[in-house]
Structures are given as structure tokens and as C-alpha cells.
Amino acid sequence: MVNLPSMSHIQQPVDYALWLHGEYSGYVTFGMMENGNNSKAWDTQAVSAIPQVLTQYSNHLDMVITLNRFNGPRQSKNLRELNAIWVDLDYHTKPQWQQASPEAVLAEAVKVLTHAQIPLPTFAQTSGNGMWLLWRIDPILPTMLPRWQNVIKHLRKTLSSLGADPSAVDVARCVRLVGATNSKTGHRPAVLEQIAAHWEASWTAALPHAANYYWQTRWDFESLEYAILGRHESHKTPQATSNRKTPSTRRRKPDWLRNFTVETRYQAVAKDILHLIVTRYGEYLPHGERDRYFFLLGVALSHLGEDDIASAMKELVQSLSDWDEEELANRLQAVIQTVQKHKAGETVEWKGHEFAPLYRLKNETLIDRLDITAEEQRQMTTIIGPEERRRRDRERKKHARAKHGKPSREAAASAHRSEVQTLSALGYNKSTIARQVGISRRQVIRLLSPSGVT
User: Fold this and answer.
1) According to the UniProt entry, which residue ranges have a biased composition of type Basic residues (predicted)?
2) What is the value of pTM for the model shown?
3) Each residue of 193-231: pLDDT tens digit?
4) How far apart are CA 15 and CA 215, in angstroms?
5) Are residues 107 and 164 in the same domain?
6) Burial class (CB in 10 A: 0-12, 13-18, 19+), 395
7) Whole-angstrom distance, CA of residue 370 vs CA of residue 375
8) Does one domain contain both 64 and 144?
9) Most buried residue, 160, 189, 252, 385, by most Cβ within 10 Å?
10) What confidence tens digit (pLDDT) does each residue in 84-110 have?
């Protein structure tokens, strides 16, 4: 059993790495830069080798470590255990927090979490121009990944006002090691003692003579999930599924859906993202916002058969930033690699099926990462959520009824309500009224209720 350091003693990279992983087995990946080089070298090692590895790389800059553990290199297919919940606060991207101290940002984060009745993190650390909040959990298996991601996404939305990074939800995410130098700022990530003091005081009051007890323990994932999200769907009594429609009763696909392809979808995505940039920022995209917009644009272009993503992107963004083609290529390296693998004929397997190794963007992901509001979705072609989809469906049906000379739903409901009330006053029962008016008995009950809801 590894003798874990207490929070007050986490000052060196090895202390932090052991605090994260020292109790368990498996593999973690280290990343590091040497002499300020842009490229990062990666080294996957067993957890038991952490002290030796960090002694070997003690002179390297920008040392990072995976937060989860794997059965080999840091890839989702090799995931062994999910080890923590986290939020990466890039508060420097928010104008109101650019000059704030880490202590002030942490105080605001505690205030937001407390107001949302979310447990405070186990750990808070600086990371140059940002901050990491971590909730340590008892390791859970990869089968829990969707639930794990839902918890992180909810925390990200809760702390979005502090610049919570929407892309920091992947299982292979790395965090800077406490005590390792950040080459961009020259600072070393450090533990923020306010969180430590808060929890040590709480646990000392609850368990006398056990001030460091909390740091030696971890959250049960389901308890933390319940505290953050409430009751999970898996805890509910399963409901009977409705009967599937037979081919003869299915509606024919509209023309626009029959003409829908992957290419037309991502053309619309790229158009919507560019429209959003121009609407929000005009002709120049701020430095702190470029990575997330340009990465998503690059992903969209990777599905349109572009061989050189950086060159194609340069034409799209030349009026929005001063980035040249080389800078774009560095920022979009992950996207470019997926295109190269795709061109080489490589595939990835998911649930027994083979797919191209390209990033895919769901509307939910795009809305979440770009914080697209309901009003902004009204101006979008394809990046819309369920509410906007239902609103458009109602409008389409309304126009279709008007085109065929049918009354609107409101007018039909008003006519039904008047007829139902008249027949009810004459003493007819609900079943008879339903047959007479041509509606269901449930609708009759609703129309006779005080609210008159249809």
C-alpha cells in the first residue's frame, strides 16, 4: 500500500502523481516539453514506476499526467478506470476575470457551486492562466463512461461564467503536475489552500483528530452523481416501450431529409459556425476564443474531402484573425492527423462497427461547446436543439394546415371546447361526446377541466 501524501505536503510532481494514482494499478501517460519545444513527448508507464519516471524527467517543462488510468497508451479503447471528475476553468478568456487572482476566481467558483447545491471539489490547483477543480472518485469501469461525461458536462455548464473549458470532457485528458514549470508563463501550478482549509475544517469538526481524513478518501461515484444531477435514469422503474410503427404507417421522409448527406450536414455546420462568429464578434475573433471555434471548423472541413485542412481554413478565417497557415496547422494538428489516417484507409471500431477515424460533432456537443442560446439557434441552419426543432416543426405544421385550408390547432381546439361544453350541459356522458365530436375521451376530459388544456 502506497503511503499517500496529505494535501499540505503536495508540492512536487511526484507527490501529486501519487496522490492521483498511487493506490491503484494500470498505466498512466506522461507528457513533457524540453527546452521550450512546441512538440510534446509522451511516455506511458505503469503506476508503480511513477517515482522513477518523475525523477528521470525532473528537468523537463510542461509536465502533464493523465487523470484516468489505462491498459496501455492513453486511448479511449485502452481505458481501464475512470479516476476523477474535473473542470478546467480558463477564466482568462472571460474579460471580467482576466486580471483576477486565482483566489478570487476560486471564491467565485465556491459561491456558484454552493448556490447550485453541488459538493465542493476535493482539490483546486492553478495552471498558469487557468485553474483545475477535481473531485476524486472511487475508480469506475469504462461502462459508466456516459454517466461520467454527463456529470462533467453539468459541472461545465454550472461554471461556464468562469470559462469552464467545454472540450475538457475526454477520458485521455491530462493535467499539469503541481510543481512542474509552465513554459508559457514561467509559473508552477500550485495547490490552492483555501479548498484544503475548508475541507480540513469540515472533517475535523465531523471526525476529531482526523484533519487529513478527507484527502485519503474518495467519493463514491453514484453518490456524487446523485448530489450533482439528482436521480439517474438507471434508478427508475423501466417503462413499457411503445409499439414500433409498421412500414405502412410510417410517414414518408420529406425531400430535405432524403437529400441529406454527411457532406451537406457539415457544410451547414461550417456555415452556422461562421455566422455565429460574425454575429458575436464582428470581423475579428478575440485571442481567447479562437481555439474552440477554429477546431470545430476544422472538424467540419475534415468531412468535406479537404486534403489540406490548414490551407482550406486559412481562406475561411483570414479575415477573422492574424493566424497564418503554420499557426493553423499547429492548432489543428489533431484534426489533420485524423484526415491523414482516413486517407491511408485506417478505421476505428465502435460497438462492433467500422468507422472512419474522423471527429464527429453532434448538435448537442456544438451547442454545449459554443454556448449557443435559444435565440441564436433560431438563426442557425442545422445547429439546433430539441426545443428549437419542436418549434420549427410546429411552424411547419401550422403553415401546412393553412395551405390546405384547415383551421389552426388553436381554432380547432376552441371549436371542440365549445361543442364539448354544449353536449356536456345537455347531459351526455364523456364517451358519447368523444364519438360525437370525433376526438378521444381523454381530450374530452381535458377540455372540460377548468384549465381547458388540449
Assistant:
1) 391-406
2) 0.59
3) 555 555 455 444 444 443 344 445 678 888 888 888 876
4) 13
5) yes
6) exposed
7) 14
8) yes
9) 189
10) 999 999 888 888 888 888 888 888 988
